[in-house]
Design goal:
Layout (H helix, E strand, L loop, with lengths): L12 E4 L3 H13 L7 E4 L4 H9 L3 E3 L2 H7 L2 E4 L3 H11 L8 E4 L6 H8 L4 E5 L9 E7 L5 H12 L2 E5 L5 H9 L1 H18 L4 H22 L3 H8 L5 H11 L2 H21 L1
Parallel strand pairs: 1-2, 1-4, 2-3, 4-5, 5-6, 7-8
Antiparallel strand pairs: 6-7
Family: Belongs to the pyrroline-5-carboxylate reductase family.
Catalytic activity: L-proline + NAD(+) = (S)-1-pyrroline-5-carboxylate + NADH + 2 H(+); L-proline + NADP(+) = (S)-1-pyrroline-5-carboxylate + NADPH + 2 H(+)
EC number: 1.5.1.2
Length: about 280
């Protein structure tokens, strides 16, 4: 199939769905300067608060989803997994091969999306909630007719809200277990660290501030230093010191094994849900 190149200097993006993820991506794209807001659109939402959010960014709000598709070169389906198939079917007459289709709906496979749309110029992306603060971790997989240029265009869109990797779709359940569900594990860890600080005598506000900034700083060191996290851990743990005493307690409680089990359990659950 001959794929029509998308004009990089003038292409338009439309969001089907106006929820938090669509808002995060749209906000990132606008704030990064990647696209001017008038080249982004979504349908007028029944919830006036959602409409106000998009309009405040300068994004076009159109009468319905059909209008969004007609106005766009790239169509991003950002609706709940249980409704995405129906939405694609409803819009199928407008989803020509000239349009690059993107889905961020969890658990809905490319094979199904391509069959519903009638062509394979589809890219599936698995983002996560820190995209809302431009620190997202996203993974994408290209459909059968999506070109290398299509992939780069989508990667640029999602780089505006964090980092993005390309992987085989068969890895998406594991991606869900790690980066999709992982923020919740880290929130639990931050809460527990703060509780530990309170137990050791710190005021609650100070403990929470220290806990959250410590996790942020540690993650940045792993991301920016190029060192293995084990090496960074060793650098902090001096002989007979405070850190190794704390690490010893974590090891006695099976800390690493518990986190590994959490990722695997979430990945297994994702696999179950995608089959239902």
């Amino acid at each position: 199939m001959e794929v029509t190149p998308i004009p990089i200097e003038s292409y338009k993006v439309g969001f089907i769905g106006a929820g938090k993820m669509a808002e995060s991506i749209a906000r990132g794209v606008v704030q990064s300067g990647l696209l001017p807001p008038h080249r982004i659109s979504t349908a007028i939402h029944s919830n006036p608060n959602r409409r106000t959010v998009f309009q405040s960014l300068g994004i076009s709000t159109l009468p319905d989803n059909s209008s969004v598709v007609e106005a766009s070169d790239v169509v991003i389906f950002s609706v709940k997994p249980q409704v995405v198939k129906n939405v694609v079917v409803q819009l199928k007459p407008l989803l020509s091969k000239k349009k690059l289709l993107v889905s961020v709906a969890a658990g809905i496979k490319l094979k199904d999306l391509q069959e519903l749309a009638g062509h394979g110029r589809f890219i599936r992306v698995m983002p996560n909630t820190p995209s809302a603060v431009s620190e997202g971790a996203s993974v994408m997989s290209l459909g059968g007719a999506a070109t290398k240029e299509d992939g780069e265009l989508v990667a640029n869109l999602f780089r505006s809200v964090g980092k993005i990797w390309t992987a085989d779709e068969k890895l998406f359940d594991a991606v869900t277990g790690l980066s999709g569900s992982g923020p919740a594990y880290v929130f639990l860890a931050i809460e527990a660290l703060a509780d530990g600080g309170v137990a050791a005598g710190l005021p609650r506000e100070l403990a929470l501030g220290l806990a959250s900034q410590t996790v942020l700083g540690a993650a940045s060191m792993v991301s920016k230093s190029g060192k293995h996290p084990g090496q960074l851990k060793d650098d902090v743990a001096s002989p007979g010191g405070t850190t190794i005493a704390g690490i010893h307690e974590l090891e006695k409680s099976g800390f690493r094994g518990t986190l590994m089990n959490a990722v695997v359990a979430a990945a297994n659950r994702s696999q179950e849900l995608s089959k239902s």
